[in-house]
Amino acid sequence: MSRQRSSKRSGSKRSELDHYSLRAKKEGYPARSVYKLEELNSKFRIFNRNSRILDIGAAPGSWTLYCLRKTAKDSLVAGIDLKDLTISKNDARLFFIKGDFFDEKNQSELLAKGPYDAVISDAAPATTGNRTVDAGRSFSLAAGIIGIAGLMLVPGGNLTIKIFQGGDEKELVGMLAEIFETAKIFKPKACRRESFETYIVGLNYKGSDEE
Ligand SMILES: C[S@@+](CC[C@H](N)C(=O)[O-])C[C@H]1O[C@@H](n2cnc3c(N)ncnc32)[C@H](O)[C@@H]1O
């Protein structure tokens, strides 16, 4: 009986995975993660057709490709990742750096292409399997991105960052609330049920006092 229940559970989990993975394959995206961005954007309008977008932690490239498909012919999608993109880079609107976002030289190159209307980050740290350690690494990554986002964003711009839930996500939302008009936390349905990732969203960057 209990075996039946458990196989029913894993069966439905598998079909949920299949739904997003098959759809991604059919639509030409390298990863099912694209549907998290689709949901985030339809809920919060993080970017529109005319937005200039910076995608941090862009590989293999589903979010980048989605942004390229959803923005106008004269838009810009800049991306950075430690790994290379697997999508075609044959689009004049795409600027990609293979490297670490926290490297100052890379930041200067990204800044030179900015500022951006939207900064989106699906960046994830190397995981250890230890939830506390992984959540701590994710917190540091997200806090680092929030610290630099102001440099990259236009006033009125929007920020979305993936984080691993570990109890400190409210602190990150608090950091966002200081520099954005609105700060939210939202877990898209497309996140795997067993995953402890979620997303924090800052809308309407207030701008720096020095400007
Ligand atoms: C979940 S994947 C992103 C998936 C991507 N959004 C997509 O839809 O194809 C997370 C990525 O974050 C990248 N990453 C983690 N730390 C980074 C850093 N400091 N600088 C740049 N990329 C980083 C990893 O290399 C990894 O490719």
Automatic annotation (TrEMBL):
Q: Please give the Pfam families that the UniProt record associates with this protein.
A: FtsJ (PF01728)
One GO term in the molecular function aspect is:
rRNA (uridine-2'-O-)-methyltransferase activity
**Active site location:** K162 (proton acceptor)
Principal EC category = transferase
Q: Enumerate the subcellular locations listed in this protein's record, separating them with semicolons.
A: Cytoplasm
EC numbers, comma separated: 2.1.1.166
Q: Which Gene3D superfamilies match?
A: Vaccinia Virus protein VP39 (3.40.50.150)
The yes or no answer to whether the keyword Membrane is present is no
- Annotated binding of S-adenosyl-L-methionine, by residue: G61, W63, D81, D100, D122
Any one of the GO CC terms: cytoplasm
Q: Which UniProt keywords apply?
A: Cytoplasm, Methyltransferase, rRNA processing, S-adenosyl-L-methionine, Transferase
Q: Which reaction does it catalyse?
A: uridine(2552) in 23S rRNA + S-adenosyl-L-methionine = 2'-O-methyluridine(2552) in 23S rRNA + S-adenosyl-L-homocysteine + H(+)
Q: Specify the domain of life of the species encoding this protein.
A: Bacteria
Q: Where is the Ribosomal RNA methyltransferase FtsJ domain?
A: 29-205
State the similarity comment: Belongs to the class I-like SAM-binding methyltransferase superfamily. RNA methyltransferase RlmE family.
Function of the protein: Specifically methylates the uridine in position 2552 of 23S rRNA at the 2'-O position of the ribose in the fully assembled 50S ribosomal subunit.
Under the heading PANTHER family, the entry gives:
RIBOSOMAL RNA METHYLTRANSFERASE, RRNA METHYLTRANSFERASE 2, MITOCHONDRIAL
Name of the protein in question:
Ribosomal RNA large subunit methyltransferase E
Q: Tell me what organism the protein belongs to.
A: Candidatus Thalassospirochaeta sargassi
Taxonomic classification:
Bacteria, Pseudomonadati, Spirochaetota, Spirochaetia, Spirochaetales
